[in-house]
Design a protein that fits this description.
single chain, alpha+beta, Diaminopimelate Epimerase, Chain A, domain 1, 17-stranded mixed beta sheet, two-stranded antiparallel sheet, 17% helix, globular, binds ligand LBFN2T5F, amino-acid biosynthesis
Length: 293
């Protein structure tokens, strides 16, 4: 028998998460094993992730974020991410800010380190209450996106309807950023799923449509791999700024205007990308046993 597992429903600009603490016995975490032999949850399967993410019958969320004990001494926690379709993925910018907010509340510190499969992410509380995360170095080689064949990632050359010639960027996860004159006019729901599975992307890709409003402001809409349209994507915002600067459309710092609100993104001289934005808790609850069955 598995003990009822606590979760925290959080979001970053409307990109929402069920955050499950698998550390066992921690302040925010799963209860420890009971006298009846019940065991705390230690992982979730693809099927369980899909059941939790289901907006009709589950908690309802874009991603499930799992918090585990860190592997490295330097880090506070280890973060894992599952998309709503159950797939486990490497990075989630909005999720990283939410995990940082939880760990900051738990420890009382303003600076925490989140470990993930792509490395250590440094997170800091900004004076205005937002959270700033160093998302690591943007990867720009075709092998790192990854692409199915050697190409200049500044011009991927693919097209579908009004979308053509995206920029490829990996910021822990793969992105293709299409620049358009009017992001609101693009049928993201129709084009996104086709482009996500384009043969050029062996691990699929997150698809961004970006409209440059000024050298410091970009409007962006997203089709997330393994989810669909979301109100915001932190890694997508990072990829968009990097793509825009590489195309000489903006400086190294800009506000990315998403359906759910704004993120500040800076591509630092050392190649790292810093993302600043809000992280909010909606409610806490316990997962119904039927979701874990
Ligand atoms: N919402 C996230 C990205 C989550 C993962 C993505 N769908 C993928 O499959 O890579 C963010 O805020 O970055």
């Amino acid at each position: 028998m598995t003990l009822a597992t606590a979760f925290t429903k959080m979001h970053g600009l409307g990109n929402d998460f069920a955050v499950i603490d698998l550390r066992g016995g921690s302040a925010n975490g799963t209860a420890s094993a009971g006298a009846n032999g019940a065991t705390p949850l230690t992982d979730i399967s693809d099927t369980q992730a899909r059941a939790i993410a289901d907006r009709r019958t589950g908690v309802g969320c874009d991603q499930i974020i799992l918090i585990e004990k860190p592997r490295q001494k330097l880090a506070d926690v280890y973060m894992r991410i599952r998309n709503a379709d159950g797939s486990e993925v490497e990075a989630c910018g909005n999720g990283a800010r939410c995990v940082a907010a939880l760990v900051m509340a738990e420890t009382g510190r303003r600076h925490v380190i989140i470990e993930s499969v792509v490395g250590l992410l440094d997170a800091e509380a900004a004076p205005d209450g937002r959270i700033s995360v160093d998302m690591g170095e943007a990867q720009l080689d075709w092998r790192e996106i990854p692409l199915a064949k050697p190409l200049d990632t500044l011009h991927l050359g693919i097209e579908l309807g009004p979308l053509s010639d995206p920029v490829g960027v990996n910021i822990g996860n793969p992105h293709a950023v299409f620049f358009v004159p009017d992001a609101g006019a693009i049928d993201v729901a129709a084009l996104g799923p086709v482009l996500e599975r384009h043969p050029l992307f062996p691990e699929k890709a997150n698809i961004e449509v970006a409209q440059v409003l000024s050298p410091t402001r970009i409007r962006m809409r997203v089709w997330e791999r393994g989810v669909g349209i979301t109100r915001a994507c932190g890694t997508g915002a990072c990829a968009t700024l990097v793509a825009a600067h590489r195309r000489k459309l903006t400086g190294r710092k800009a506000t990315i205007q998403l359906d759910g609100g704004d993120l500040e993104i800076e591509w630092l001289a050392d190649g790292h990308v810093r993302m600043t934005g809000p992280a909010e808790t909606s409610f806490t609850g316990r997962l119904d046993a039927s979701l874990l069955g």
